[in-house]
Amino acid sequence: MVKYKIIFFGTPEFAIPSLQGIFEKENLLAVVTQPDKPKGRSLKLFPSPVKIWALAKNLKILEPIKLKDPSFLKEVKDLSPDLIVVCSYGKILPKELLETPKYGCWNIHASLLPKYRGASPINWAILEGEKETGITIMLMDEGLDTGPIFLQKKIPISEEDTAITLSQKLSILGKEAILESIQLHKKGLLKPLPQPENNVSYAPILKKEDGFFTFEEPAEKIERKVKAFLPWPTAFTYYKNKLLKILSAKAILLDHQNTPGTIIEIKKEGILIATSKGAILIKEVQLEGKKKISAYEFACGQRFKVGALLE
């Protein structure tokens, strides 16, 4: 079967399985990724995970600052791609790019569209308590994840899943979905269907303040924040005017209610703290300026006492 000539757009680790699958199965013409970004206190420039992978394979790499740059658009057009595949690239493609490939631009999106259109679908699916999610292969248009759907694959969200573990699962599922879609397309069996107009929701880009919580919130909501916001921005509250990250926690149902913030129990497993509904067992924390430690170590170091209110 003929191989499609493909240009791949992607930036984070999430995109690499799909990129690798296309590299192995199709004719990968070039990889487009975000320019190197400054990191850390030194603001040293670092390449994206996709760029690092592509360099190791000696692939052609393009890093446009602006996607409407005429020289970039000409370079893409000169490559005469059959298909552009986009996976977590980080920018909306302009009309000029969308119209370049023979078979259009396809997006590997980490939700069951039309739910969770936008930049952070994995995080928001966990935060909203969804029981399942998946991958959508979509024919891109000028809107934000509004194009017709080619194919969807579903997976359950387990009670243990965090944004990190779910992202790993979906990145593998994305590879399976895009390769299956390409094969179906070659056989003339892939037909785009318009997205349903109901159940539309959005997953905006994460902000630092999204991770903030207080013990006035229900325990289940706090647990979902802890899971949804790993590795960034993390769920956090404040202790003695210092930011306290909560890295692992579990909601516990109780027969009685205590004042939110009351320390109910201190044990090796963690600190059990009352919330507005139920209690939250905090297992691992990181106080501002300190390394991450078990909640039990933290409780001992701060000399917490059962019955006291967490300051």
Tags for this model:
seven-stranded mixed sheet, Rossmann fold, alpha/beta, about 300 residues, about 25% strand, 15 strands, Methionyl-tRNA Fmet Formyltransferase, Chain A, domain 2
Which whole number gives the mean pLDDT? Answer: 96
Strand content: 25-35%
> Can you count the helices?
8
Low-pLDDT segments? none
Terminal CA distance reads 66 Å
**What is the H level of CATH, i.e. the homologous superfamily of the largest domain?**
Formyl transferase, N-terminal domain
> What is the C-alpha radius of gyration, as a whole number of Å?
23 Å
Percent in helix: 25-40%
CATH topology of the largest domain: Rossmann fold
Which architecture of the largest domain does the CATH hierarchy give at level 2? 3-Layer(aba) Sandwich
Quick one: biggest sheet?
A: 7 strands, mixed
- Care to count the β-strands? 15
Which assembly state applies to the chains in this document?
single chain
Q: What overall geometry do the principal axes of the alpha carbons give?
A: elongated
Secondary-structure blueprint:
Blueprint: E1 5-10, H1 16-25, E2 27-32, E3 37-39, E4 44-46, H2 49-56, E5 61-62, H3 70-78, E6 83-87, H4 95-98, E7 105-109, H5 121-127, E8 132-139, E9 149-156, H6 163-186, H7 219-228, E10 235-239, E11 242-252, E12 263-267, E13 270-274, E14 279-287, E15 293-294, H8 295-302
Parallel strand pairs: 1-2, 1-6, 2-5, 6-7
Antiparallel strand pairs: 3-4, 7-8, 8-9, 10-11, 11-14, 12-13, 13-14, 14-15
